[in-house]
Every structure is written in C-alpha cells, then in structure tokens.
Amino acid sequence: MEGTLSGTIGSRDITPDELRLAARNHGLPLEALREPITPAGLHYLLIHYDIPAVSPEAFRLEVGGAVERPLSLSLDDLGARERVSMPVTFECAGNGRALLAPRPLSQPWLTEAVGTAVWTGTALRPLLEEAGVQATAVEALFTGLDSGVEGGIFQAFERALPLAEAEGAFLAYEMNGAPLPPQHGFPLRLIVPGWYGMTNVKWLARITLLEEPFQGFQQRVAYRFYSEDGEPGEPVTRMMPRSLMVPPGVPDFLTRRRHLQPGPVTLRGRAWSGWAQIAAVTVSTDGGASFAEAELEEPVGEAAWRGWSFEWDAPEGEHVLCSRATDAAGNTQPLDPPWNLKGYANNALERVPVIVGRP
Amino acid sequence: MEGTLSGTIGSRDITPDELRLAARNHGLPLEALREPITPAGLHYLLIHYDIPAVSPEAFRLEVGGAVERPLSLSLDDLGARERVSMPVTFECAGNGRALLAPRPLSQPWLTEAVGTAVWTGTALRPLLEEAGVQATAVEALFTGLDSGVEGGIFQAFERALPLAEAEGAFLAYEMNGAPLPPQHGFPLRLIVPGWYGMTNVKWLARITLLEEPFQGFQQRVAYRFYSEDGEPGEPVTRMMPRSLMVPPGVPDFLTRRRHLQPGPVTLRGRAWSGWAQIAAVTVSTDGGASFAEAELEEPVGEAAWRGWSFEWDAPEGEHVLCSRATDAAGNTQPLDPPWNLKGYANNALERVPVIVGRP
After folding, report:
1. Domain end marker among B180, B204, B235
2. What domain count does chain B have?
3. Which of the pair, A358 or B102, is modelled with greater confidence?
4. Is residue B73 domain-shared with residue B210, that is, in the same domain?
C-alpha cells in the first residue's frame, strides 16, 4: 500500500553517490507546471561536471574541422547575427530513472526533470553555410567548456549530430529574455528542439565538422539504450511523450502526499513529445483502471509542451491520479516502465496519490 | 576506504520520501562558492510546501495583533519606504543531516544547503513603530502564504521572533537587484541576518504582534534540538560556524570525486557564522590529522560569509582535504557530527577526497 500510494522507487537502497548528485541537480518543483514558461531557477538542471567560470570578453566560438573557412566568433559577433527566439521544452534523458527496478546508478530522477524556457540566439545553419561545410562532412560535433572524468575517461562534454538533424538547431545566448544563467550554459549553448537534454550542449565553445561519425564517450558509451552490457546499443535521441500534473491540493511536507477537499476540482498539467505535437491527453482518477479525455490548450510553441485540464468531482477517500500523453505520431505513454541498462526515457505514467477529505 | 573517501551518509537506506524531497530542493553546486554573491538559481532552496502563486497587484502585507494602528501595505507602499540592502548568508538548519548516524528523516542534506545573496527591502523596526507595538507584545509572528500538512497538522508556514531579536530584521522584495524569484518568496520575505534559513519566512503576508510566545508547529515541534522524543527541546536559532571549500580539480561524474594534477594549487573556500565574524579558518590536507592557518579575505558583508585561501603543493596520491571555521565568539567546527533527533546544525568538518595524479 505504501508503495502504491507514494510511488515506489526501484530499490530502497539509494547510494551516497546518487544522493550527492540529487543534492546538486534538481527537478522542476511540480507546482511550477502551472507556468507556461518556467522561470530559470525552477527549470530542471543536470550538470555532468562543474559549472565553468567563463569570461564573456575572452569567449570565442570556434567553427572548424571539415569547413572551407574556419570561424572564430565573439559574443558581439553572435549577437549581431539574425535573432531566433522560441519556447522549447527540455527533458533529461534520465527522467524516470529512479522508478526503474533494478535501478541504474546515475542521477536518481523521479519524474520532474523537465522545463520550458524561451531561448533566444542565432540559427546554426546560416553559420555553417558561412563556414562552408565540405561535402565530406557527415556530423557536427559540439564541445562545451566543462570537463571531468566519466567512465574512467577525462573528457570535455561533447556530443555530435548528423547534419540533417542539425537543421532546426540554434545557438542561444538568452534564456527567458536575460543572458544565460551560469548553470544553463553562459554564455552560449546549443538548442536542438525535440531532443533530450544532453543534446543541448552548454558552455558551447567549439563546433567541429566531422567526416566520420563521432566515437566519443557521450555518443558511443553514454546515452544509448542497452538491454545488457557489451551490446552496441541504440542512440537516445528525441523525447518520448510524457504528461505531468500540477499536484492538486496541498502537500504533506515529508511525503509530498496531497490533501484536498471533496468536490469539484480542475486538474491541470502539461504534456510534450519530441516526435510530434501532442494529440491527446487522457486522465485517470482510479490509478489507471479507466481513462477519460482531457481538454487540450493551444501548445506553448511548436517545440514546447501543451497544457491540459480535466474536471473532477473528487469523492472522499484515497485516490491515485494519472495522466497519459499521446502524440500525433502515435506514440503513447506506457503503463509500466520500459527498462534499459542505463535508465533512459522511462516515460511510464506518473502516479499522483491524493487524500480527499475534510480536515 | 570507500566511506572515508567519499564521505559517508548516516545510513545507506535513503527512503523514497527523502528522495522526493531531494529531487525538488537543492543545494549550492559547490563550485559556485567561487562567487561572493550567489546567483539566484544556484542559491540553496528548501520549500516546505508548494511555491504559492501570488498576484503582486492583489498582495498586501497586514500588520496586526497587539498594535495601536493595524497596517495594510501594498508592494508600492513598501517600495516607497526607506531602502536597506545587504549581502546575507543563509544556511538551512538541516544542513549536514544526511551525514548523521542514525539519520533523521527529512530533507537529506549533505553540506551544501547555503548561499549568499544581496537582499533589498525595508527595515522592520520603523514599520512596527508606525503600527505602534503595544507594551504587552513579546513576539512578532511572521506568516507566509504557503500552506500544507506537517506532523499531521494543516498549517501555513509561520515562525515568531522575540521582539529584541527582530531588531536587525528587514522585509526584502529584491534578491540580487531583481524582484524576488517565486521560489525565494515573491513578492516579499523576512530577512533575519545570522539566523538559520527557516527564520526568513518567504511569501510573507502577515505580521502579528503576540502577547504570549508562539506555540505553533514550526516553533514548538520543528526546529528544536532534542536528544530524545518527549523533551521540550531547545530552539534552533543562529547559524553555527562552517567552512566549505571550492572543490579543486575536476569531478568524476558519478562519484563527484575530485581529480587534480600534482603541484602547487590554491585551495579556496568561504566560511560563516551567525554568532560573530569569522576569526580563523584552518585547513587540513591529511584528513584532519593536522591543520594550518588559511589566509582570510575581507568579509563579503557584516552578515555574509568570508573568503579564505590556502596554498598547497599537492603530492601524488589520495588525500582528504578539510577546512575548519572559528568565529570571534569562540565557536569552532567539531570534528565529529553533533547528533540530535531532528538533525539540525550538524556543522562537523566537511571532508573533500581528492586524487592527485597524472592522467
């Protein structure tokens, strides 16, 4: 009963390493789902190494590798280019990891590693055209200024994208109308709408056009779906659909269990997918036994979440609320967690236990 | 060895409730100790219930109870009053809790629940004088707009201060030169320099002058030092001295263990106390077996932390670094955790394991 009501974690044995990660990285406080645009300090954060200290005056973005004309751009150079601005929903690829059993050891996310910000910067494609990408190039590699040890390897954080996937990407220097905060990549980061968070390389300092697919750690070891060790694995790419609910009522401090009054209540939440627009959200007030359609709001943006609402006449007693997103490509959230070795993309239904009663 | 090097947590058995709290509340990423003033999104956060949504237009601060002239003040009224502004270091009273054995169940902080911001607002004392505090009043009660269930009791978050302790307090509507972010109490919070974080009531909406000491949950049950259940306990008040280090070198992603090169390195950190100015910081590079004096910088402010530095010629091998703060009132950090039932004010030495070697 305790497990059912409070949402189980895959194992009770959270290690000191996981706790250390959880003390520094953080999710979206779920009540902040009421905001279409997440304030910077409430947006989820996953920082692999340390937040680097970057001098904006000394900063240069270098574009090199398989290009005709390598570029070296200051922040002023980037700011003088054509501006693009759009709300984009980000989610950590490890969101839901702590709900898997057995639980892969890494950042122990429950369901709240998400956020939507308005990112402003300049498009990647014209910049690559200016550099003159050679016909032999197949991928663009994005390298950040953050470095550390992972899997026993000293590395800067870097990830590559096939050139076709880089089409809609842009380089952001503002978040919600202000310069990027240090923890979100000051002074520059990559934005790839629809992809999981690791793609959006922070503290971006170098773009290298590659003639062979990138073989680095974050591409060939991490961020792949494995069912067991030793497999080549499949890359983690776009966000699977997920819906989360603004938790109704008020919380208990320790358990975060919700208490609410009997009677009519409007349940609200937001849903997103990196594959297509959200086409439907259904809501269950009986722990997933039955579902009914929620009303959809207009999406916050082409690459951002979509609000929903559902009228519920809450009867006294204990209930488990769920919401379930389906996108226009036909992807829908599973009822049970889809397990994989590293714990990526667990988009199983969120379960929100509530106690309805007069105090 | 694992325990010694990585810093033990009091028990390996972190519960789902604790993980849920850790996913939402967060500490200061320790590299941010390099900044004298913590950017808002990096400052630690402990939110008892939910972040309330507050309309700044409708907001009023009510001052009532044992006063001659109850007040009802808009944000414009507050903004028109004389401004005070100062950097203040805040620390959660539960900082260090997860390092206690046995570990009290609540937010499982390691050592990083701290931050320093420049808070701007208006002094409390002239406002109370305007309201005309009656001679019978003994305490001021501060009530926030956030509410929830704690210890089985539905409550708004509220804490009281004896009038003499309210002398240096002020009401802040800006953090680091911008309106308070939602998670730091928008639009108004109390600031009581030197006291643990729970004192600085967020989303402050009402000040009530009381003729008897406040008996509410956050004063009489929570935030007290107990050695066992059923005792009256002693109130948690001002911050005990603590020093933290900017972790040198680079981290391992999973363990956060630090790697650095052999040779000279300047260790840096910050120390604070709510009782008096920091008078000395000593540093150990041998796990606390011996200590030497660090060099102190000027304090960031009268109620803010003080930077320190220490030159170390790092030899190859594994080492545990510590720093230890002593204040001008003679309080110093203990080597071993001071246990109490609810896990408050554990200011035992931080232990920073490092691996010095050529990669």
Report:
1. B235
2. 2
3. B102
4. yes
| A 42-61 → B contacts, CB under 8 A | 42, 45, 47-51, 53
pLDDT in tens, B272-326: 999 999 999 999 999 999 999 999 999 999 999 999 999 999 999 999 999 999 9
**B91 and B174 co-located in one domain:** yes
Name the residue range of residue A158's domain.
Answer: 2-235
In a shared domain, residues A76 and A180: yes
ipTM greater than 0.90: yes
Among candidate residues B182, B203, B235, the one where a domain is terminated: B235
**Same domain (yes/no): B198, B345:** no
Considering the domain architecture, whether residues B8 and B78 belong to the same structural domain is answered as: yes
Retrieve residue B238's tokens. 């001002």
CA angle A17, A251, B140 (to 5 degrees): 100
Q: Tell me how many helices (H) and strands (E) chain B has.
A: 5, 22
Q: Which residue has the higher pLDDT, A103 or B223?
A: B223
Find tokens 């260090």 and name the residue. Answer: B96
- Quick one: pLDDT band at residue A9, thresholds 50, 70, 90? low
Same domain, B139 and B252: no
Q: What distance in Å separates residue A135's CA from the closest CA in chain B? A: 36
Q: What per-residue string of b and e applies to A34-54 under the rule 16 or more CB within 10 Å gives b? A: ebbbbbbbbbbbbbbbbbbeb
Tokens 């931080």 belong to B350
- pLDDT tens for A103-153 read 899 999 999 999 999 999 999 999 999 999 999 999 999 999 999 999 999
Q: What is the largest CA-CA distance in chain A?
A: 71
Are A178 and A293 in a shared domain? no
User: What CATH number corresponds to the domain at position B325?
Assistant: 2.60.40.650
The stretch B330-351 carries a mean pLDDT of 96
Q: Which helix (H) or strand (E) holds B124?
A: helix B124-131
Alpha carbons A201 and A157: distance in angstroms, whole number? 8
What global pTM score does this model have? 0.95
The partner residue sitting opposite A148, judged by closest CB among B14, B110, B251, is B251
Same domain, A215 and A310: no
Nearest CB to B39; choose among A25, A149, A181: A181
Give chain A's mean pLDDT.
94
Query: Which of A26, A15, A18, A30 is closest to A350 using CA atoms?
Result: A30
CATH number of domain containing A197:
3.90.420.10
Chain B touched by A155 (CB under 8 Å): no
Question: In whole angstroms, what is the distance from residue A165 CA to residue B228 CA?
Answer: 60
